[in-house]
Write a structure and sequence with these properties.
This protein is an alpha+beta fold. The protein has 3 domains: 14-52 and 88-112 and 271-404, no CATH class; 120-256, Orthogonal Bundle (Arc Repressor Mutant, subunit A); 407-484, Homeodomain-like (Arc Repressor Mutant, subunit A), CATH 1.10.10.60. The chain is built from 21 helices and 8 strands. A hairpin with a 5-residue loop joins strand 7 (407-409) and strand 8.
Amino acid sequence: MPEPSLQLRLAQKLALAPQLQQAIRLLQLNRIELREYIQEVLDSNPILERDEGEGSVESVEPVPTKAEKTDTADSSSDSVGDEPVPEWEMDSLPNEQWGETSSYEGFSGEAQIADDSEGGLLDHLLWQINLSHFSEVDTAIAQAVVYGLDEDGFLQETIEEIRASLAPELLVGEDEVLAVLHRVQRMEPVGVATRDPQECIRVQLSSLPSDTPYRDLALRIARDYLALLARHDMDELRKRTGAKEEAVVGAIELIQSLEPRPGSRYDNRRDEYLVPDVYVTQVDDEWSVSLNPENEPGLKLNNYYIDLLRKSGGSDADYLRGRLQEARWLMSSLELRNRTLMRVSQAIVDVQKDFIENGEMAMKPLILKDISEKIEVHESTVSRATTRKYMLTPRGLFELKYFFSSHVRTDNGGAVSATAVKARLQVLLQNEPHDKPLSDQDLSDLLRQVGILVARRTVAKYRESLGIGSSSERRRLYRLQAEMGV
């Protein structure tokens, strides 16, 4: 048995102050969540209240310290009993209402786009995460995964983007994210947080009991021959798998009983509509951003409780002093959130002004790192500031993340945005001859003629993301339209 001993170990650990934790949390909240959070604070903190007027927060005189009170002749009248007024300072209290307001004259009314940021699927998954035996770190990873889902339940963010959204307070490895991701994929609905319907079906099949009839054959078809299944090519499926017709039919029925879009059963619609967080306007030939004034809560300190704190002592003063500190932190964090959102939005507009003026074909390649280096913040800060925040431009309402896209090489060594390539593809497909639709290789060759180097399989991926069928499917559609006289 080893003898007990004392050992000295040095380790690095990141410790976040409560104020910084609050600022990080507020930055990632969308407009609805921020409004609910502020209302919760207002309900629990008597020192904080809404500023219904348009002026700034009334200035508050510093409360005298103990030494100052003992030097005045009327110190006894400002305290309760014989207890002295506790020492505290209010030098850092904001003297004006945080943030800046500005009007937006470029558009009238609000964009009528349904807000699904708090849909049933999101609520259901967060509820399961809270009930699961996740560690504190795994809970944060799982929540980051869930916030990266689209309305169909598919994961839209990469593993690296999820890691970046957790940094710098949580520095996790790729293996940790993948492990938590696999656990989330087994939550209800099974197959959520997968990348596409094919992976979703594989996850659902693998979660079935091993003795499920035709499960193994269905897994094989879903992994290797899903394209044949989509074409209903039974003969080729039997030939490729070597299985009997009865087994193939049973495996197909099992696959068809699954849900390829796990979020489809949840109603993510809301009666509330998206309201832009940021407006883009043109001023003197320059594009500038301004925050939506309706998103600014207008908070101020309650003078009654400030006066009460000056005169009270003991446990009452301790309570009010704690609430005052919370109010100061919240107002400071909201101001920081406001300023960060403005800086990130302006940096995006500076890069993508060609898109605002000329449309999607002028979209430039942009990644989180580009903006983080431009405004000198961490990539995770940019990720939080752009998640579920919306910008109203002359070209419509877009989530801030829309302006980020991967790049495609050009023949002169440059790069073009994937969004711009998709826009070009859409134009080519809209103008293609109906009697001879363009194949993916034809599209690749046409893009190469204008200097964009895109492989055939990349063209297919972009085409599918636009919801456009293959050349054979389009040929059948054109033929049907011609027969119907459309």
